[in-house]
Amino acid sequence: MRIAIMGQAAFGAKVLETLADRGEDIIAAWLPQGKSGAKPDPLQIAADERRIPAYRPENYKAPEIIQEFQTLSIDLLIMAFVTDIIPRTLIEAPSQGAICYHPSLLPRHRGGSAINWAVIMGDTETGLSIFWADAGIDTGPILLQKRVPIGKDDTTGSIYFNRLFPLGVEAIAESVDLIKACRAPRLIQDDHLATYEPLCNDKVARIDWGRTAEEVHNLVRGCDPQPGAFTHYRGEKIRFFDTHRPDAAPAGRPGEVTAVDAGGFTVAAGSGAIRIGKVRTAAGKQDAAAFAATSGLKQGDRFTTAGDSA
After folding, report:
1. Three-state SS string across the chain, please?
2. Backbone phi, then psi, for 232, in 5-degree steps?
3. Mind listing the pLDDT tens digit of every residue in the chain (310 residues)?
4. Which residues does residue 273 pair with via DSSP β-bridges, in sequence order?
5. Cα(42)–Cα(60) distance, integer angstroms
C-alpha cells in the first residue's frame, strides 16, 4: 500500500519514522504550506534521511499541486498534525481514503485546541481519535479511539507529550494494519454530542479572579505550555504555570496574595486559592519565589484583570 504522510513537527516525523522502519511503503511527505527555503520541519528531515520525497506547496489549492498529488497514485493519506485546510480533492484522491489524528474523543472537542479545552473544562478523561477525513472539521467517521485519564495537576503539555503523542503514533500504526486487513471501522459521529471550541490564545487565557480556584487552576493547566494563562501585577502581564490547589489557604479578596514563601506564593480566587510554582514575564520564565523576591511581591498585594483597580 502506497502511503503518503501529511503533517509536521515531531509528531509527523515520528509517524513517518515508525511506519517506514516497520517496512511500510512511504512514498511522500507533505509539509505545511510555506515558501521554499524555510527552516526544515522535523517531518522533512525524517523524510530526507530515508530518501522519501518531501513536498512543501505554497498553496494546497493550486491546480498544479493538486495534479502533482494525484499523479503519485497514493493509496492512503495519513494526516499527522495537519493545521492547513486541505482541499477535498486531495482528501478523496487516495484509493483507500485519508485518515487523520485528533487529540480528543470525538465528537467532543473538535477544533485546533482540543487538549487545552479538555483541561480548561475540567474533564477527567480525554483521548485520541483516528478518523476518516472528510470536508468538515474533525467530522469524519471514527476508525478507532484511545482513552487516557486527566490528573488533577496534568497540563496540556503533560497530557500530549507523555500520553497522546506516543499513543497517537501507535494508534496510527494500528489503523494502517486494520486498513490493510480490510477491517477498519467507519463509525459515524453523533453531531448531537459534538462540541467545538476556538483556538486557545490570549482571547481565552485571561484569568478572572472572581472564578473559583478550581476554574482558575484548570485554566492555568489548560494554557500550559502555551499561551500561558495571564494576569496583571503593577501593570505588567504575568503568566502563571505549575499551579496546585492547597488543602487549606488563608482567605482573601479575589486576586489577593495570601502567602509568600520559599516555595512560591498563594493567590485567592472567588472561592478557594491556588498555589503558584512558576511565572513568565517579558523577561522570561522563572520560579514563583524568585519572581516574588525580585518584584517585591508580598502578602496583601493583588493580581488584577486588565482594567481592574488594585
Report:
1. CEEEEEECHHHHHHHHHHHHHCCCEEEEEECCCCCCCCCCCHHHHHHHHCCCCEECCCCCCCHHHHHHHHHCCCCEEEEECCCCCCCHHHHCCCCCCEEEEECCCCCCCECCCHHHHHHHCCCCEEEEEEEECCCCCCCCCEEEEEEEECCCCCCHHHHHHHHHHHHHHHHHHHHHHHHHCCCCCCECCCHHHCCECCCCCCCCCECCCCCEHHHHHHHHHHCCCCCCEEEEECCEEEEEEEEECCCCCCCCCCCEEEEEECCEEEEECCECEEEEEEEEECCEEEEHHHHHHHHCCCCCCECECCCCCC
2. -130, 145
3. 999 999 999 999 999 999 999 999 999 999 999 877 778 999 999 999 999 999 999 999 999 999 999 999 999 999 999 999 999 999 999 999 999 999 999 999 999 999 999 999 999 999 999 999 999 999 999 999 999 999 999 999 999 999 999 999 999 999 999 999 999 999 999 999 999 999 999 999 999 999 999 999 999 999 999 999 999 999 999 999 999 999 887 889 999 999 999 999 999 999 999 999 999 999 999 999 999 999 999 999 999 986 564 5
4. 268
5. 20
Give me the pLDDT at residue 308, please.
60
> 283: which 3 cell numbers?
523577561
Which domains are delineated in the chain?
Answer: 2-193 (3.40.50.170), 213-295 (3.10.25.10)
Between CA 282 and CA 284 the distance in angstroms is 6
Q: Grid coordinates standing for 193?
A: 454530542
Find, among 267, 270, 263, the residue nearest to 299 by Cα. 267
CA 137, CA 196: separation in Å to the nearest integer? Answer: 9
> Residue 11 has which C-alpha cell?
509528531
What nine digits make up the cell of 180?
490493510
